[in-house]
């Protein structure tokens, strides 16, 4: 059995080593763009270029080495009609929880204000907002969003969740679909974006949506940059409607040097590290799924191409 491996960062050697350790019968072929691959049974890709498509003929499934599949699905009908399988958590949920918890507490406990006071040599305790006025709204309550909500639960913030389909999560006021989006936004002092990037969510967070957040709201985007209309976010921060944002993802990555976000102190920037792929967990998950597919069994985390996630 042969697996085609492609990673846009070129960091393939440890992946090959981990696959060989777990499934010695699997022949892992790294596609280096220079020469064609021999026929492969499966493919594992991250950041695929269009030229990869020609190498995928005959594969039984394409695995993506991450949770988001937008970079693969953008090739649309040029992709072979085989299952596309994303990672299901695989060690990313706990990282997302750490990241979002840090950002929420930084705003609630006003550590951002204390950082700025300290730079000016100011010693002055600040009043805290009331927790009941500090509701946290998580857009996207899937594999990762649900873990973020669970991690926030012990802190006593009012919790809100928004998803495509109606569902219940204990202790969380749930909203679903575009009909309930306005109510969800109006009830969220902190908006955490954990949605996949799909045709339905592209630029969803534009000025009209962000203006529905209460005055003084914060935005945390750990999903994909193109969910957010970046100039609209900046306008609303500068107008004072939004108090600040923590952004891990951007329309163009790396965030270009002259981008106005760099100079805006109310925007905290991280370089797409909210939840990194954990190689050992991922390899274990993919090997398990390949074994299940070989036995003819159904597997989890198969992407719905029509929905885009
Ligand atoms: P997931 O399990 O597929 O969950 C997606 C959630 O979004 C589901 O709750 C889904 O609703 C909801 N959703 C999708 N389309 C929607 C729509 N049109 N309207 C309302 N809700 C919608 O995804 P995940 O594993 O939690 O990952 C989420 C995203 O995080 C990934 O797609 C990726 O882009 C991003 N990510 C970023 C990093 C990073 O380091 N920054 C790391 C990993 C992942 P239903 O529950 O109704 O299906
Ligand atoms: C990272 O951004 C992922 O989608 O896994």
Can you describe this structure?
The strands form two sheets. The chain has a seven-stranded parallel beta sheet. It has two domains: 2-89 and 277-294, Rossmann fold, CATH 3.40.50; 92-269, 3-Layer(aba) Sandwich (Rossmann fold), CATH 3.40.50. The chain is 27% helix and 17% strand. α7 (207-210) links the parallel β9 and β10. The protein is an alpha/beta fold. The structure holds NADP nicotinamide-adenine-dinucleotide phosphate and glyoxylic acid. NADP nicotinamide-adenine-dinucleotide phosphate binds next to β7.
Features:
single chain; alpha/beta; Rossmann fold; seven-stranded parallel sheet; binds NADP nicotinamide-adenine-dinucleotide phosphate; binds glyoxylic acid
Q: Compute the number of helices.
A: 9
Rg computed from alpha carbons, rounded to a whole number of angstroms: 21 Å
State the assembly state of the protein chains. single chain
The count of DSSP E runs of length 2 or more, i.e. the number of strands, is 12
Strand order of the largest sheet: 8-7-6-9-10-11-12
- Mean pLDDT comes to 97
The biggest sheet amounts to:
7 strands, parallel
